[in-house]
């Protein structure tokens, strides 16, 4: 059997694999901040060199934003495309990190060893599990078990502005039998999850201007319109008292969960109380008649992700600011149309503007929800392979985050995607002190080796 | 007559006086930010040396915060205390300044020459008008026309935490027949104003915490409470649809304006339209049944002066933050009790907290409104003297800002205060590109010389 020596090699090579991951983690490839553009290029270059080291014909391709990395290697089995992203989230508030986010460390914790730093999970740690599985396979067998196209982007955390044009222009280069995406999580730490539903995302930034300059609230307060007052009144109207989003038409294309799927999810025995307790909460927010798992996997939501206006430094300043702004995201499900909702949201905001106020909007991405077809035999093969590696059998599940690329692959390349990943709920991705369990990294590599083995047969 | 040569000397000495002001303006004495503490000390030292240069027995006195400057000089007339503050507001947003805020310049503008920089008006430019009047008087006559105590603090822009204890401990050192305060403005640019009503100020900072760490909105959004959502809902409730403040009991001790005073104000012919147009507005905010002048001088208000939460940098980050905070100020009138209102505000906020949320409050000052008695003969003397200097006769007026020290002088030293000042509505105090008209500086110095002359007789 060809799998066992690969798994053994993965086990014995773990320290070296971790050191390779650390090299990539040390590159601060924050895509959303233009000051970090050269680091994004460095991360792309690093990946090209690493792919070449395992015999992949790889190169980085310029885009209007950060470069794409594309690689090809031949093999006997089916043709898969593996997608990941090398860019990471910003690190602020920096003062909440216990260590430099770009100086990764292995830490002993009560729950086991973890790799700590920005990108350890999202998505550098996850994408390297696939590369390391390929490296071990190549080292043992001299070739890979499938024909593989590698495709890494560097703009996932900033809305992937270059992605769709690139997919359109390079459809023939990228199309495969199936896409593999490693950017998701285990189900409650012990159960590998194969994602069949992903929420979409609409990102909007609104800036409200009232007076044409900052004013002294003693000179103008009361008499002049305060844009923070306008903004908070609008945002306060986003949800009604039952937690339902108030933007007109928001729920128009939101389906109820099919009974069969609801029953499958019910059978997973999600522990709602400990899910909330993990982050210091005890009461679910959101729509009052929905469970947290329903809210996360099958309901659309609205959240303010950032708000700023006026004086926010130390002490106090009685300023009446000229403008105030907020970043608002909507997670979308079913057939909700992000472009239609953007129009509806903007009209709804404008309708609430008092006299003398202006509003401007910035677009931070719009992608619909995705629903995976599980018809491809790889889904059943992966379910069996993952059930061999992990303590609990693998589950088909939903996912609260948005991985728009899965939908784009379907739309622009007519290619289904299979999403698996090894993250845990407490990995603090997008937050200070992001981590990835060493177990996630190790068993993740082993899981990919098993999936490749299962797919080739 | 002793006044004319003093006025002539003021005219001929204007360039040198401006250069002395520039020296003080170049010291970035921002009191609210601990990083600038040494500059506050430098500004205090500079004032001590400048007072000594005109024969004042002056020194700086340490306080728990920034130092106090106290000086005494004997003279034949009544005993006055002159108060000013050498600290300035922070300068952010720095990118909105056309020049370095601490590199003052004289600029030609369509409305005449202006001095541009932080503190040019508030309060360095204003306090230097008094010092320069004294300097000219001393140079012409070898002594000053009144017995004068000089008192400058360095914490006015950060709530004056050391002021009341200092007044209590040094009551005998500071008590005079009347306090003179130069920290206010002309009435609509041409009419000198002697302030008889000042609003009080309550400053509160509220911080709402929900989850115990920042979360990914894809993982938790919808299911976990978002503190920005809680904060915006509470702040949106601050005002009702008619612009009235909703904190319980807020209007309990707010008197209607006496008819006589209302008639006096009416006679001033305040140009509401151009007051608003000056800052790009056309509709008054605030209580719907009040004019802007009423709102500014005689009505209490609430304003959010700063709000921040989540990701506020470039681009987008789908974070669900752990906390969000806002700085809220209330301008107070009549007999409104700031401590009672603080309790009421905090209880009102707490009553709106959903489960799982915590709130903390920080206190940024609490001072009641002040009403000046105009019984002291200096008020009539100053009204005549100012009417000689300026194009329009001087008016007794209200003032929208808060100068708590006037109330403290009454409470702790049993001393009335007379407030005059030479600022203009478009001076952008507390904002980028603060300025002080060269005319304000020049005629301000001449005005003080006239007031001193009028008071001694």
Which properties best describe this structure?
four-stranded antiparallel β-sheet; Aminopeptidase; Alpha-Beta Plaits; 2 domains; alpha+beta; 15 helices; nine-stranded mixed β-sheet; homodimer; 18 strands; 457 residues
Would you count the extended β strands of chain A for me? 18
Largest sheet of chain A: 9 strands, mixed
The rough form of chain A would be described as: globular
Helix count of chain A? 15
How far the N terminus sits from the C terminus of chain A, by CA atoms, comes to 12 Å
Please state the CA-atom Rg of chain A, rounded to the nearest Å.
23 Å
Indicate the CATH class of the largest domain in chain A: Alpha Beta
Oligomer: homodimer
Q: Which fold does the CATH topology of the largest domain in chain A refer to?
A: Aminopeptidase
* Estimated share of beta-strand residues of chain A: 15-25%
* Mean model confidence by pLDDT of chain A: 94
Q: In CATH, what is the homologous superfamily of the largest domain in chain A? A: Zn peptidases
Contiguous low-pLDDT stretches of chain A (5 residues minimum) are none
The percent range for helix content of chain A is 25-40%
Assigned CATH architecture of the largest domain in chain A:
3-Layer(aba) Sandwich
Main interface by residue count? A-B, 99 and 99 residues
- The figure for the number of domains of chain A is 2
State the secondary-structure class of chain A: alpha+beta
């Amino acid at each position: 059997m060809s799998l066992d020596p690969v798994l053994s090699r993965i086990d014995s090579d773990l320290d070296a694999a971790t050191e390779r991951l650390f090299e990539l983690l040390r590159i601060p490839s924050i895509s959303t901040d233009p000051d970090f553009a050269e680091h994004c290029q460095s991360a792309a270059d690093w990946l090209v060199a690493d792919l070449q080291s395992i015999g992949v014909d790889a190169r980085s391709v310029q885009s209007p934003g950060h470069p794409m990395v594309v690689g090809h290697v031949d093999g006997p089995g089916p043709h898969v495309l593996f997608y990941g992203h090398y860019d990471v989230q910003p690190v602020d508030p920096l003062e909440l990190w216990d260590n430099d986010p770009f100086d990764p460390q292995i830490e002993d914790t009560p729950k086991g060893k973890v790799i700590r730093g920005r990108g350890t999970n999202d998505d550098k740690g996850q994408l390297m599990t696939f590369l390391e599985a390929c490296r071990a396979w190549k080292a043992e067998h001299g070739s890979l078990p499938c024909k593989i196209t590698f495709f890494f982007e560097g703009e996932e955390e900033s809305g992937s502005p270059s992605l769709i044009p690139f997919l359109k222009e390079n459809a023939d280069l990228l199309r495969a039998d199936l896409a593999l995406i490693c950017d998701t999580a285990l189900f409650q730490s012990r159960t590998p999850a194969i994602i069949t539903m992903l929420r979409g995302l609409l990102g909007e930034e609104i800036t409200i201007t009232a007076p044409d300059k900052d004013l002294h609230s003693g000179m103008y307060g009361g008499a002049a319109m305060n844009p923070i007052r306008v903004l908070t009144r609008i945002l306060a109207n986003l949800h009604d008292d039952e937690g339902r989003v108030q933007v007109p038409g928001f729920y128009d294309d939101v389906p109820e969960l099919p009974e069969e799927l609801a029953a499958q999810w019910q059978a997973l025995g999600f522990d709602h109380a400990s899910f909330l307790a993990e982050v210091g909460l005890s009461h679910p927010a959101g729509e009052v008649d929905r469970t947290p798992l329903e809210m996360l996997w099958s309901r659309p939501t609205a959240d303010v992700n950032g708000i700023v206006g006026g004086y926010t430094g130390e002490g106090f300043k009685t300023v009446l600011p000229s403008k105030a702004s907020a970043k608002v995201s909507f997670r979308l499900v079913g057939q909700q149309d992000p472009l239609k909702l953007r129009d509806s949201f903007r009209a709804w905001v404008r309708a609430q503007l008092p006299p003398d106020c202006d509003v401007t909007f910035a677009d931070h991405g719009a992608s619909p929800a995705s629903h995976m077809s599980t018809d491809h035999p790889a889904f059943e093969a992966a379910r069996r392979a993952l059930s061999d590696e992990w303590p609990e059998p693998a589950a088909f599940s939903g996912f609260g985050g948005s991985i728009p690329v899965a939908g784009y692959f379907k739309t622009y390349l007519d290619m289904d995607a299979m999403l698996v990943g090894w993250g845990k709920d407490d990995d603090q991705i997008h937050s200070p002190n992001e981590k990835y369990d060493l177990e996630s990294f190790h068993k993740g590599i082993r899981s990919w080796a098993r999936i490749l083995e299962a797919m080739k047969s």
